[in-house]
Design a protein that fits this description.
By secondary structure, this protein is mostly helical. Among the domains are: 7-216, no CATH class; 369-458. Helices cover 63% and strands 6% of the residues. It has 21 helices and seven strands. The strands form two sheets. Strands 4-3-5-7-6 form a five-stranded mixed beta sheet, with helices on one face. It has a two-stranded antiparallel ribbon with strand order 1-2. A hairpin with a 2-residue loop joins β1 and β2 (32-33). α1 crosses α2 (40-52), α9 (156-168) packs antiparallel against α14 and α13 (240-253) packs across α15. The mean pLDDT is 91.
Length: 460
Amino acid sequence: MPLNSWDEAWYASIAREIVRNNEWILLKFNNVPFYDHPPMGFWIMAISYKLLGISEFSSRFPSAIVGVLSMALIYLTSVKLFNKKIIGFAAAIILGTTVWYVIRVRSGNLDSLFVFFYLLSLYLALKAKEHFYWFPLMSLTFGALMLTKTLIGASAVPILFVILFPQLIQVKKNFKIFLLGIGLFVVLVLPWYYINYYAYSDFITHHFLKIGTRNKTFSSYFQLNQELPLFYLHMGVRKWYYLWLLSTSYLVISLRFFKTNVAIMLFLNFVILYPFLTTDETQIWHLIPMNIPLALTISYGLWDLGERLVCISTGFVKAKNRIIILAKSILQNQAILSGVYIIAILFIALWQFKIFYHEVIPSDKHIPDDVDISQRVSKYDDRIFLDDDYLPIAVYYSDRFMKQMAFEPQERKTLVHLFNSENEPFVAITRNWALNNLKENNIKYVLLEQNNSFSIVKKP
């Protein structure tokens, strides 16, 4: 399918500018500086363009590849945490069948890359906890995470600190490795922030406050507004949501959080979810990082709950005859418990996948009217105005600089005002119904192109 507006076509246009202008630090969209997000996602997409050419496929290819790799990473992370491959397998299945994860890893957005670098940082931190020589590599992946989404990436700091605390208190012993890791992080991350800070006077306020925190005040982080974020989380993961609530409740009530690995997992839930619970500006895709602790919590929680129930049930049954003895031996058999567990996970995953399949996989290729009219306008050499709100689509598919009417001065914000105030040649994309406004005001125009929704007009 064609790229979507806003983010997907927006990011693809930025990556295309990187390739064409060979400018990897000061990013631009439609000739306007872009520093909403750091550049890692755009760099990776630009590399894909260089290897595969500029297309919808190459825009989405990196996201799809790392989306699959993240399933492998959550498997490895689970095995590191809980030392059971079956829990890792279940976590991978859960992650891969959360609806909005599937939707976003099939698109040219930043979410898939963010989840990948977050998981890779966690996994390498667990490796560094055992052998600290993994710390420099973890520092690089954490730097890549920060360069994908700054402040959301910074949410990994507390969890990485908790994991590495036993090693960090022995920093003198590992001082050279620690210094190397910090140095690699600084070399990777600092240049982009430093250059953009000096290039744009509003970089700090725009990048960190307006985009990063949505201008939230410090006190707002202590005011819960959980209804909308939890609703979005539910809609984003569907059937796994209530199993996450069940697993989390069980692990707390059963005091399993006294185990270090469970405490780390529950802390990860808190670190990622809490900021979203204090804002009413959350979107459903913003909560995709929560899929990481959600998958880990369900996979471990259900397994541990199953083991506990078997232990309790067999403890109450006294062996009096061969049938009861056989029943107890079956219940206590790890292979049988594993089979029941994985069948249950796969059943829910397949049930969920069957339900959301047609939401994610289109039945046929459809070119929307906004894409069609944007492709058509590329043939005209005059300045182009867009009288609608799909600027990234228009810029990407026309491959032209474009002025959006909403950003024009007040006296030029409508098509009528534009025709009355503009003397130089131009063409404009507008909704078909807007032509009536020109007719009602006796404004002459030339209709150049038209489809079911949009028209391209020119002042004669």
